[in-house]
Amino acid sequence: MKLLIDLGNSRLKSALWDGAQLRHGPALTHAGGGADEALGAVDFSALWKDMPPPHAIWIASVAATAIEQQLTRALAQHFATSPKFARSPASACGVRNAYSAPARLGVDRFLSLVAAHAEVPGAAVVASCGTALTLDAIDAGGLHLGGLIAPSPGLMRSALLDRTARLGELAAAQIVDFADTTAAAVESGTWLAAVALIERFIARTRTRLGQDPVVIVAGGAARRLAALLEGEHRVEPDLVLRGLAKFADGAA
What we know:
By secondary structure, the chain is of the alpha/beta class. The chain has 2 domains: 2-85, 2-Layer Sandwich (Nucleotidyltransferase, domain 5); 91-245, Nucleotidyltransferase, domain 5 (2-Layer Sandwich), CATH 3.30.420.40. The protein is built from 7 helices and 12 strands. The protein has helices at 44-47, 65-79, 107-119, 153-163, 182-209, 222-226, 239-251; strands at 2-7, 11-17, 22-29, 56-61, 84-85, 91-92, 95-96, 124-129, 132-138, 144-151, 214-218, 234-235. The strands form 3 sheets. A 5-stranded mixed sheet has the order 3-2-1-4-5, with helices on one face. It has a 5-stranded mixed sheet with strand order 10-9-8-11-12, sandwiched between helices. α6 links the parallel β11 (214-218) and β12 (234-235).
């Protein structure tokens, strides 16, 4: 049994993998950034208290080094096992990384492509929305075509509020095409900007490959984002963990 951990910029998710089935485990929100004590208040003994010691622990992390170190110490103390960190290679699990410096590709993006390539019979576009919005395309043979990174709608909204003098605090609002309040204009503008970028990326992928890619929407905001997209798509919030399972099995 392997314990798999997806350590993002602001959230940790975990699962157990027995080689056939992925069972969701505890999740939590952390402070993010480079704060040395971002995970300091977390009681890891309580988080995994009923879990038998795993044979191995694998982590996919895009968080700050200080947070990785805190988590490593906590896991080693609780399970007496040091975790292994997945890093983006030039190729693995049938996926070939487009980056000339492969390790610079976020491991969450690489593992999402691993899962997509294993589960989709053909080309795919992965749109993942969490703290950031990332887009990646892969062809049927496992070649990563490259991708894009942009602020998520939440990050766009925060930037607007931080850098403009008169917006102030805005109430939650519905997403509409023609807003008649500032709150609705900001909410709609940020989400629909993300949708427009995704749909443009899908169209460019279709043109480059000469076929319709399968569109997979992942990440913490996957369901809300997917509801705004036109065309067929799949919602897979746990794509990184599924890719990590395949990566860990391949490294065993």
